[in-house]
Amino acid sequence: MYELLKGLGSWLVGSEQWTGSDGIGHRLAEHLQYSLLATLVAAAIALPIGLLIGHTGRGAFVAINLSSFGRALPTVGLVVLVFLASGLSMWPVYIALVALAVPSIVTNTYAGMTAVDPEVRDAARGQGMRWYQVLFQVELPLALPLIMTGLRLALIQVVATATIAAYVSFGGLGRYVFDGLAQRDLVQVLGGAVLVALVAVVLDLALSALQRFLFRHRPAPQS
């Protein structure tokens, strides 16, 4: 174990490991690109759905069941399925990552909307506000803390799962894990896993700090 950890330390700080197209810097940029793009697409899909369900109260079973669907989704299986249908491209990876991120965003958006006090909605309607004014000027601002929690959870899940890009011969930090397994290089495998974990932890801490700063005058939302 000591030799493995010593090798990991040397691997992480070696200057040759940080340069070139296979360097940590380049792989990290690829990993973040996959993760951020997939989360943005998922947010564009999931936020309107969650807002609509929460505002109208219709289709609540969709939001509730999506949470279980997200936990049961076989991500690698989905990548393989789309890969067989579309061929060698990044589409299978992005589709799988978006499908993974959507449930967290929908369920937290719905939860944030349903947490809004009905009396606040009634008061807004009583003042003559139209439905879209109630939605965007009253409900959305009040639901925003839980919505941001959903976005944060989705991004961390995607970062942790974006290693699957290497499964279909693309880049990202997962390249170290899959290449290390193929070469029986435990130091490289451990290095890739540690880097992915560090990225996920750093992003989670940064987004949590941002969320606390933005909503420092509100009660902390429940994840």
Automatic annotation (TrEMBL):
<feature type="transmembrane region" description="Helical">
    <location>
        <begin position="190"/>
        <end position="210"/>
    </location>
</feature>
<dbReference type="InterPro" id="IPR000515">
    <property type="entry name" value="MetI-like"/>
</dbReference>
<comment type="similarity">
    <text>Belongs to the binding-protein-dependent transport system permease family.</text>
</comment>
<keyword id="KW-1133">Transmembrane helix</keyword>
<keyword id="KW-0472">Membrane</keyword>
<keyword id="KW-0812">Transmembrane</keyword>
<protein>
    <submittedName>
        <fullName>ABC transporter permease</fullName>
    </submittedName>
</protein>
<dbReference type="InterPro" id="IPR035906">
    <property type="entry name" value="MetI-like_sf"/>
</dbReference>
<feature type="transmembrane region" description="Helical">
    <location>
        <begin position="60"/>
        <end position="84"/>
    </location>
</feature>
<feature type="domain" description="ABC transmembrane type-1">
    <location>
        <begin position="32"/>
        <end position="211"/>
    </location>
</feature>
<feature type="transmembrane region" description="Helical">
    <location>
        <begin position="158"/>
        <end position="178"/>
    </location>
</feature>
<keyword id="KW-0813">Transport</keyword>
<dbReference type="Pfam" id="PF00528">
    <property type="entry name" value="BPD_transp_1"/>
</dbReference>
<feature type="transmembrane region" description="Helical">
    <location>
        <begin position="91"/>
        <end position="111"/>
    </location>
</feature>
<feature type="transmembrane region" description="Helical">
    <location>
        <begin position="34"/>
        <end position="54"/>
    </location>
</feature>
<dbReference type="InterPro" id="IPR051204">
    <property type="entry name" value="ABC_transp_perm/SBD"/>
</dbReference>
